[in-house]
Amino acid sequence: MRYISTFLVIFCLSINAFGQKHDYNWVFGAFEIGGEVDRKGNLLNFNEDIIQLELYEKEYMIERPNVTYSDSMGNLLFVSNGCSIYGADGETIENGDGLNPGRVADEFCEDEYNVAYSTDSQSMLALPNLKDKNECLLFHKRVNIENSDTFNDLLMTKILLGNGLSVSSKNMLIDSSHSSGLIAATKKTNQEGWWIVSPKRYGKIKVVTSITGSVVDSNSYQNIGIEISTSSQATSYSSFSPDGSILALYGEDEGIQLFNFDRTSGVLSNYNFIEDPNDFGGGYVGLAFSASGRFLYTCHWKKIYQYDMWRADIEESVVVMDWEESYDDFFGYETPFFRMERGPDCRIYLSAHNSTNTIHVIHHPDRKGVACGLQQNIKIPAYNLGTFPSYPNYRLGTGAVCDSTKLFPTDLISAIEPSFELDRIDNYVSVYPNPARESFSLEFYDFQKGLVEFRLYDPQGKEVYQQNFIDPFGQQQINDLNLPAGIYFYRLSTVQGTLQKGKLVLVE
């Protein structure tokens, strides 16, 4: 009996590890350039070993409000543009119309051209009911215009996933007077619900909403951080780190706000601020964490910034990457950076700032600096109005954040830049500073499983120093060498052989 129980536990864990693929399809885009106006879009499908990017047939517009949700095994279930909820067949699901009722919906959703709801990116988020696999909770922002000021209400709609999709209840008010967009979520420690964080429209208040199953337990109003200014309230972005321990919020005027987050109590703490570079006035921003949580990426118009969250001085660790000049071949628009989202393949995807048929991809976000493999100006089938769906880490506590073994289509890589998949960078490890004195660091770009030996040799080939590392990743420190100044040679080895070798100069 004990063996049967053990088997069942392993089986359930396996199902959890391979399921929860709610982010395995992304639908985005507004139209395809052709002989007539259409509403076709793009589908990024992560279910196969090689990622699929193809034209997606639909008859509705998707602008900045965007939800795309799949079942636990990666089958596309529904898409929403803030006006209605559409099934995988493109038809409105039962009772799925009439989202976000009010003046804005009357103006946009009833338009004869079938446009999308007018609010910001990150204004919709779909979360599975962690106590009922047959229900999904859709959280969305409704624009509420009062006294010439624009506020947003946080609403919840419940979707039944049983034999045919249907909405059981919709537009239930969770809280009012919020900023535009900025819905971020992470799982509770007990795996029975979610925490949702969204800032108020004015002031420093961050609203932390507790969800258990499909029940809203409470709203906690926490006065922490800084106020999001009027100019930034619709252009900011937020995200939890993959493990849910850090919340980051970035606005072009306010810079980056960082908070520790307790997934048991729902309390934000240890506020930290990184000043905005102020290298561009106006425009939207993006933000995403690498799969390990080590690197935080932000983008603003023609710049990408990479911050090392494992460094004592995060702000000083920044690496800046520039946009490579390119223009849309139909409208002539520039194609700089806009929204960022980490995919279930561990890559970070960036939409273009203007309406173009272009995206950008960071292939190796857990590598430092240019080794991250930023590929720019990849052509996509349909024109996109700067949107991607937004996702939490659905697999937190039950499986890997993402699957880095999935391959990017080689035709999309080779058409733009040399293959990041096939032509691996020369160095797996950075050694710095070099020259060094008594100490230096090893920066492992990739996680190395098992024993890694570091050996240092003098010019005559005599070994003068040796240190072992177990499962190294990121920065590893070597201190107190106590060796004469001169030229030395190092070798990093694993059980498979030499990982890397090079020269190290020690100075007085």
- What is the helical fraction, as a range of percent? under 10%
Radius of gyration: 24 Å
CA-based shape:
globular
Low-confidence stretches: 1-18, 414-426
Oligomer class = single chain
Coarse structural class: mainly beta
Percentage of β-strand residues: 35-45%
Using the coordinates above, name the CATH class of the largest domain. Answer: Mainly Beta
What topology, given as strand order, has the largest sheet? 7-8-9-10
In total, how many domains does the architecture comprise?
A: 2
CATH fold-level label of the largest domain:
Methylamine Dehydrogenase, Chain H
Largest sheet: number of strands, sense, barrel closure? 4 strands, antiparallel
**What integer is the average pLDDT?**
88
Q: Could you give the count of β-strands?
A: 33
CATH homologous superfamily descriptor of the largest domain: YVTN repeat-like/Quinoprotein amine dehydrogenase
Core attributes:
508 residues, mainly beta, Methylamine Dehydrogenase, Chain H, Immunoglobulin-like, 2 domains, four-stranded antiparallel sheet, globular
Structure commentary:
This protein has two domains: 22-413, Methylamine Dehydrogenase, Chain H; 429-506, Immunoglobulin-like (Sandwich), CATH 2.60.40. It has helices at residues 2-18, 103-108, 410-414, and strands spanning 25-28, 41-45, 52-56, 67-70, 76-80, 85-87, 124-128, 135-146, 149-160, 166-178, 184-187, 193-199, 205-212, 215-223, 237-240, 246-251, 255-261, 268-274, 285-289, 295-300, 303-308, 319-322, 337-342, 348-352, 356-362, 374-384, 429-432, 440-444, 451-457, 463-470, 474-478, 486-494, 497-506. The protein is mainly β and 508 residues long. It is globular. The chain is built from three helices and 33 strands. Strands 7-8-9-10 form a four-stranded antiparallel beta sheet, with no helix packed on it. Strands 11-12-13-14 form a four-stranded antiparallel beta sheet, with no helix packed on it. Helices cover 6% and strands 43% of the residues. The longest helix is centred in the first third of the chain and has 17 residues, at 2-18.
